Task: inverse folding
């Protein structure tokens, strides 16, 4: 597969980015994608109850993905949700580079 500028910018092997699936993109899926050479993406709401705490869930997902891979990954933050500001704060505190 052709290496592209996207590969170089994101530190990935293949120019493939996992979609940010709001309720489905958990650490296990994203780590599998990242370990395969593409960019895995987690969601702060993956596997969470409907009215749960997105920031706490995001912290748990970040810990889990870092246990599963050392490869680059991203985080999908929907900007139209009430918790977006809190979620961005978590990303900054955790040193996430791709969102």
Result:
């Amino acid at each position: 597969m052709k290496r592209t500028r996207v590969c170089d910018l994101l530190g990935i092997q293949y120019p493939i980015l996992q979609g940010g699936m709001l309720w489905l993109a958990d650490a296990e899926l994203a780590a599998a994608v990242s370990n395969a050479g593409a960019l895995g993406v987690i969601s702060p709401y993956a596997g969470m109850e409907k009215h749960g705490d997105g920031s706490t869930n995001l912290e748990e997902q970040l810990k889990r993905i870092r246990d599963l891979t050392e490869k680059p990954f991203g985080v999908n933050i929907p900007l139209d949700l009430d918790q977006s500001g809190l979620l961005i704060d978590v990303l900054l505190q955790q040193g996430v580079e791709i969102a």
